[in-house]
What we know:
Strand content: over 45%
Low-confidence stretches: none
Structural class: mainly beta
Amino acid sequence: GKYWMSYLGGKLKGYETDPLSIGMAWTSDPSKPLEWSKLDDPVLTAAQPDARPFERLTLYKSNVFRDPEERLGYPFIMYYNAKSEHGYERITMAVSKNMTHWLRYGHEPLIDNGSGISGDPQITRIGNVYVMFYFGAFYRPRAFDSFACSYDLVNWIKWDGPDLVYPSEPYDSTYAHKPWVIRHDGIVYHYYCAVGDQGRVIALATSESLD
């Protein structure tokens, strides 16, 4: 009977100033322009005793979904990227039975490219394969979108072919990153954050030409 939203937040001024934590909020009717009810405390923070070494500085964007099959023993699963004091970001996960209390799952990051940023995961399912869209930055030049695949939500195989989107147009010549991918009427729409000659904008790539 509730609609839930996960979000990141921090108490210090500035753009994504460390530390950031993950909070949860809910509403009974998202169509009404009313303030959502927030949980009093963040559900995941870098200061919690069970925070793993690679997430002890800040936590970033989360993607939560319901797994009716409870493959991991929990109905709710969260993926998020986190940063350690070494300064680079990796993707990890947590699980919950009720959306309010979250447990970290596993001891190692799921996506780790050795440096730079691996972030903003989005999980979808194609047949019996789970697909994680995410962006990479700075472990190779600039920023780009890629993906990884899994059969069990825990062990992920990273795509090592061409990037899904990458800097190739004047409007995304600096960064082409932060994916959100949907399929509608047989066409895949890949929305992403583009940084280039028009500043920071939202751009779109599609699996077929829309002209």
